[in-house]
Design a protein that fits this description.
There is one protein chain. With 142 residues, this protein is α+β, with helices and mostly antiparallel strands. It has a single domain, classed as Coagulation Factor XIII, Chain A, domain 1 (Distorted Sandwich). Strands 3, 4, 5, 7 and 8 form a five-stranded antiparallel sheet that branches. A three-stranded antiparallel sheet has the order 1-2-6, with no helix packed on it. A hairpin with a 6-residue loop joins strand 3 and strand 4. The longest helix is centred in the N-terminal third of the chain and has 23 residues. It is elongated and about 80 Å long.
Amino acid sequence: MSDVSVYVIWSAIAILLALMDRFIMRRGRCQLLSVSGGGFKDGFYRVGISFNAYPPLMFSQVSYTLRDANHPTTVITGKTRTLEFSRRGLNSEFLLVKSELLTPGDWIVDVKIESIGCRINPFYKICPITSHQQRTVHVNKE
């Protein structure tokens, strides 16, 4: 067996293991369970999210937007942040939006959790694990 064929075999094994890790083991996956409006508190509108985490979530992040249902060109984009401090199992958090940016009415909340699970395995970057939900919440400033 030549040196080239040994390298080809080892390369094929490494690629197969990386594919199995990404598509079967799915490290760092996170399932978004619910998105809901949480009301106003301390000058912020709170959007509640709950998700199931399967650690490690070291390379996972949550991003969100709010779009006015009556004026779809009005979009508020929240700050993307990591989920490093999430624990295994059920987690719940609030995403905060300054109350002065919102007008009363229906808003479409779009939340996405994206995980690249592992920086060594390139298949996580090519096909990240995502969980996405979109809900309509009614904002009432009274």
